[in-house]
Please model this.
Amino acid sequence: MRKKIIAGNWKMNHNFNECVNFINEVKPSVVDNDPAKVEMLIAPSFVFIKTLKDMVNDSQIMIGSQDVSSHEKGAYTGEISVSMLNSIKCDFSIIGHSERRSYHHESNSLIREKLQKLIDNNIRPIVCIGETLEQREKGITNEIILQQLSGCFADIDLNNNTQIVIAYEPIWAIGTGKTATPEMAQEVHHNIRLWIEDNYNKETAEKIHILYGGSVKPANIEELLSQKDIDGGLIGGAALKSESYIEMVRIANK
Ligand code: PGA
Model:
């Protein structure tokens, strides 16, 4: 049985006080979460990771980053390295988000470099993939997903690392209020799991977590989570408010 993951991606939202308030509001609800069933993850801006890590110290909430550099160290102004994240005990890192791919021209091979760095440093990666509306309408969703998987996972040894998470986020569903139907999402998730099975093995495919992202909210999460291959959500807008985040965690515990 795979646990469910409720991961908030705050993007470039929430200043210091808003981050602190959110954690103060969510922390008491942790007692209602069954850690054997649901994992609670939050990715604030880099600047607040350490503060939030200290705040959640003894609770189940995991704090991660929204990106990481593909470089080890050195003259890369503005970049944040894996070892910096490690030094503040960052729990996970989102890589390859479609906003990074489109605004910062990130390629599958760059994301692959980041993935390798995270694996080498024992930080749990959440690798994002997903098609554009145009690609879906052309009927090439599956092809695009498989291309992204082959690029991001080229020569990556997954067999002993089932901590890795894949997030399927159709770009047309991100921040638009449009959600893929649970059946549409399930079909892609199933194909992702088959790809893992074909390229690694059945055991890895069964263990790996595949999250859905794109306008997930309390009103639609239950149906999405009821799909066989959907193991949780990577959630933007609806994870900014503590009440709505707590509600999604509660639903995932059902
Ligand atoms: P959204 O964002 O939930 O606001 O659509 C999801 C994401 O980009 O990870």
Remarks:
- The two ends are 14 Å apart (CA to CA).
